[in-house]
Amino acid sequence: MTAQGDFPNAEHDPGKPVGLPESIVPQTSPPSLPSKENPAAKTVPPSLPRRRNEVPPSDESTAEQRPLLPIRPWPHELALQTPGWLASMVVHMALLIILAWFTLPPETGGDMLNHLVASSAVDRGDNLEQLEEASIEELDLETIPRDLPTIEHAVVIPSAEVEPIDATPPAPMRIEFDPSSWRTAPPGDAKGTFDAGTGEPLGLRDGNARAAAVAKYGGSKESEAAVAAGLKWLAAHQMADGGWSFAHQLATDCRGRCRNPGENRFVSSRNAATGLALLPFLGAGQTHKKGQYQKTVQAGLYFLVSRQNPQTGSLWEDGGRMYSHGIASIAVCEAYAMTRDPNLREPAQGAINFIVYAQDPVGGGWRYDPQQPGDTSVVGWQLMALKSGHLAYLSVPAITVRKASQFLDSVQGVGGANYGYTGPGQGPSTEATTAIGLLCRMYLGAKKTDSHMENGIKWLGKRGPNNNLYYDYYATQVMRHWEGEPWKKWNAVMRDELVKSQAKRGHEAGSWFIAGGNNPQARHNQTGGRLYCTAMATMILEVYYRHMPIYAQQSTESEFPLE
Predict the structure, then answer these.
(1) In a domain, 460, yes or no
(2) Are 546 and 205 in contact (CB under 8 A)?
(3) Which domain holds residue 250?
(4) What is the distance between the alpha carbons of residues 487 and 465, in angstroms, rounded to a whole number?
(5) Nearest Cα to 211, choosing from 544, 555, 500, 554?
(6) Is residue 29 a contact partner of residue 550, using CB atoms and an 8 Å limit?
(7) pLDDT digits over 534-553, tens only?
(8) CA-CA distance, 56 to 110, in Å (whole number)?
């Protein structure tokens, strides 16, 4: 988004990843992909691999030598008076030093020391490769000398042993959210589905409830027709393996007939592209169990689950990194929440577990790699995934959510009316990060009577929608939940502009590509390309029924106790 914001580009800090929207730059050592075994049956809480036992190099300093003095009578007398045990000790010490010198290769100690120094200096996020490569077959053995001699008697120094890190997730706890924002299924139906008309958060997505929501909250026949056309285009650009790619022109059905693909350096971000493409289908009530696009959704979910690391639950990948994980996690968790398919429970819980592990233990945020100090853009996707997991009755530790709230405290400005990227007011523009921060506050139970929320809504209203789809996506949700006159004014502009700008001809029909123009914050539209623009625009037009409005009276009538 911004030069230091949500969806960076090549002009952003070249040392930082560029992606969806803050990181898609290939890594030299991406995490390993899961085995072909069914990950749903193997997903376990994330854990760190044991480090190799490393013993610091032994002290190889030689014994202090006695200086050579001129021959005089008294040394002979001194030698005769030296106790035998002292002479024996000196001789044995010398022998031990000589044996150690020939037994241990000189490079071993240096390598181990270098490894320890490098491990302490590396950024926490650079350890993701070790996290992902949990099996011994996948460990990098290049740094271990292959011609080590056999040591019959090794001296182990207990204080030098590296104790394994206990990364066991905390015991399951219900999230202590305000009931008006984080709702669950009605009592007595924990194993049911989110059907239309039940008053549930995802219950407006299908059937008569969807049509009623469109009419009530400001949709139109034209906006619904645009959604249908967007889904058709997305389905036509699914890859043969079931996933999607920002290089949409490679799809069998397209073969280059659609312009404006994403930039080449983002081709590896398949999980991000697939999760982003699946969300509009799920938003329209299409699942792998029912709907016009049942097979399309099924293939997409299978693609994600097959690429999930079965040991850690990670959907992190080369390019998208934590963006990829967050976006793909939302898709898997929503699919499970809508269908209660038992085959999705463990992949969904595993994805949540990885988010819990990846949180910055100090600041409470998320960024490109696990446990890095956070930024508001990445935090938005992870928090939405946690909410989706909560709605699906998955285990989400309350402490994780409290820490996320603490992160928002650290980046808010003007008492919470707007939000920066990594600190208050940071970045050339805070439009997208402010929208993200306000939506996250709504998820966390901020009251509509809060003056800071009111000021934030006024701030967004003055700016209005623009050609920055990332900002529009979050701000539209904020205004939709707020309702009233601010929403009516926003919706009238946003809805009609999207309907008008949708492609109507050729193979591009049903898709969007909105150029950034003079808006430097909209350059990521070109970065993500036509697939990104189409997915985001379709979800914006689904805003009338994707979720129940947080502050609506009927949204709290069948609350499930969050204890």
Answers:
(1) yes
(2) yes
(3) 39-46+169-556
(4) 11
(5) 544
(6) no
(7) 999 999 999 999 988 777 64
(8) 9
